[in-house]
Write a structure and sequence with these properties.
The protein has about 160 residues and is an alpha+beta fold. The protein has one domain: Cyclic phosphodiesterase (Cyclic Phosphodiesterase, Chain: A). The chain contains four helices and nine strands; from the N terminus they run E-H-E-E-H-E-E-E-H-E-H-E-E. The strands form three sheets. The chain has a four-stranded antiparallel beta sheet, with no helix packed on it.
Length: about 160
């Protein structure tokens, strides 16, 4: 019997950014909102879903090959915004579209062919950090939170992460 792991590829956040986001969490109390613990904050590049353990090494090898291409770019914050627009139950730190980000996601998708179902990752990747979740629709977020600025986020490495089941 093979063991399955829930895997995703992410951009890990620097400690300085997590510290800044932690101070926002302390300053903004929104009813029914659950802030994501700082250690879980990241930007997802690709969600593999449940993968047989036998595919773990091939995935690691493909990602290692990708990271040796010395990619380096920065993401710029657009805004903090409730998402998705039609029934917002999350607050995102939404970053501006970035062609290098999109290209990296495309490379990871290509590398994952034959390992995972592409239907999980059909939509365009939107660079964002899910900062908070709510069981009820988020009607509004404080103006102060909407106008927060963050320094550009340098992206120089990616990580393969496991989700506890």
């Amino acid at each position: 019997m093979t063991t399955k792991k829930r895997l995703f590829v992410a951009i890990e956040l620097p400690k300085s950014l997590k510290t800044k986001l932690g101070s926002l969490q302390k300053n903004y109390h929104i009813p029914d909102l659950r802030w994501i613990p700082l250690e879980n904050l990241h930007i997802t590049l690709y969600f593999f879903g449940e993968i047989d353990e036998k595919h773990l090494e091939p995935i690691k090898k493909k990602l290692t090959a990708l990271t040796q291409s010395n990619f380096s770019f920065s993401l710029t914050l657009e805004s903090f915004t409730p998402m998705p627009p039609q029934n917002p139950r999350m607050i995102w730190a939404h970053y501006k579209s970035n062609s290098q980000f999109a290209n990296l996601v495309k490379q990871i998708r290509t590398a994952s062919i034959g390992i995972t179902s592409e239907r999980k990752n059909k939509q365009d990747a939107i660079p964002h950090i899910t900062c908070a979740r709510s069981k009820k629709p988020i009607i509004n977020i404080p103006i102060g939170l909407r106008s927060v600025s963050l320094p550009p986020l340098p992206v120089t490495e990616i990580a393969l992460n496991r989700i506890a089941c």
